[in-house]
Structure formats: structure tokens, C-alpha cells
Amino acid sequence: MHPNPLFRSDDRALLEALIDEIGFGMVFLTTPDGPRVAHTPLLSTGDGAVQFHLARGNAITRHLDGSTALVVVNGPDAYVSPRWYADRATVPTWDYVALELEGRVRRMDDEGLEAFLYSLIERFEGRLGGEQWSADETPESIWNSLFRGIVGFEMEILAWRPTLKMSQKKSPEERERIAAGLAENGSPALAHLMRTLGG
Fold first, then answer.
1. Buried b / exposed e across 98-115, counting CB within 10 Å, b at 16+?
2. Contact 125, 133 (CB under 8 A)
3. Which of 26, 19, 43 is nearest to 121 (CA)?
4. CA within 20 to 30 Å of 191's CA: 75, 83, 120, 181, which one?
5. Among 93, 77, 96, which Cα is nearest to 85's?
6. In this structure, which long-range contacts are made by residues 121-124, counting pairs with CB atoms below 8 Å and at least 24 apart in sequence?
7. Helix axes 172-184, 188-197, angle to 10 degrees
8. Per CATH, which fold does 5-193 belong to?
């Protein structure tokens, strides 16, 4: 988390929306073999927890149950050029959105894991438009075989540490120029958040 309090937020609805919109993150854990990270789809339960699954053979899977872990959700990020400032006699920076979640992890039972998978599939299939694919289209033998290769987890979030660094130190006019520059140069999502969330 960035040390400047200007870049923080206590808006839980916004943070939950970021998890929902991005839907993917990294799980960090210190294991007996050293620090490890796993990349995984994420699903917020809406009541202070986040669910995910990992391959059974992942380096951290066997160490997660009962541990305290860190989940990081990375939002949009982009280089910010001084050419967009009123005074160009300065240096570039990087604007970004990131959310760190710390909490206790418990392993899900098979019923919980299956419910999580169906919810995850339904959510992301729904975003694609058109005729959705359904998990029921997978033959039971294939589903069961693949299901045995993963482990589901739920993390009770004990600490929310967001960073919403979007040029808040700049004037509204400069922020609009920065947003326009970002939008024109391949970072429309960050530009949208700058304009939507304000200063």
C-alpha cells in the first residue's frame, strides 16, 4: 500500500466492486520453502471474504489451510508523462489501482468448491454476451477428473489496504489533461476511474 493517505479509500462497496470487476489476483504466502505466489481467479462473497482455487500441485496449496495470506488485486496502471502537466519541469510518475487483502485462509469442502466454480463460471460467462456456456455441458467423468486436480479456499479478510493513486495531487484541470492523455495512449480504464472517482 502506498504510504500517502491521499491514495487510500474506506469505501468497501468500491473495493468489493474492484474485486468483482477485475476477478483475478495473486495469493502470497511464506512457506517452509520460502515466499511463494500463485495466480488465481477471485470471487468476493460480499460479506468480507474472497474465494479462489489452486491446482493441487501448486507450491503453496498444501500450506494455505489455517495460514494468514496476502491476496493482491491489480487494477489498471499507466505511466504519466510530465507533458500533461501545467509545469513540465518535473518528473514522470506511475498511476495505478491496487488492493491488498490480508486474512486467514481455510480450505473449502467439495460442496463449497463446486458452488464457487459454478458461480465463477456464471459470472464470467455472463460478461461475454451471446449464448453462454454452462458447466453442465462438461461430461461428468471429465468434470470429476479435473475437479480432483484443484483445491478451493476462502480467505476471511482481516485487513483491506487499497491504493488508488490517480494524480490526486494535481489540479482538476491537470487531472483532466492526464486522463485525456491516458485515454489516448492505451489506458482508457485508468482514465475512466480518474474521471469517475474524482480527486
1. bbbbbbebbebeeeebee
2. yes
3. 43
4. 120
5. 93
6. 123/20, 123/23, 123/43, 124/23, 124/41
7. 160
8. Pnp Oxidase; Chain A (2.30.110)
Other CB atoms within 10 A of residue 63 CB: 17
Residue with cell 479462489: 52
User: How much is the pTM?
Assistant: 0.92
115: which residues sit within 8 A by CB, 6+ positions away?
A: none
Residue 94: strand, helix, or coil? strand
Domain ranges across the chain:
5-193
User: pLDDT of the chain along its 199 residues, tens only?
Assistant: 888 999 999 999 999 999 999 999 999 999 999 999 999 999 999 999 999 999 999 999 999 999 999 999 999 999 999 999 999 999 999 999 999 999 999 999 999 999 999 999 999 999 998 999 999 999 999 999 999 999 999 999 999 999 999 999 999 999 999 999 999 999 999 999 999 986 5
Question: Which three cell numbers mark 130?
Answer: 451471446
Q: Judge whether 35 and 66 are in contact, CB under 8 Å.
A: no
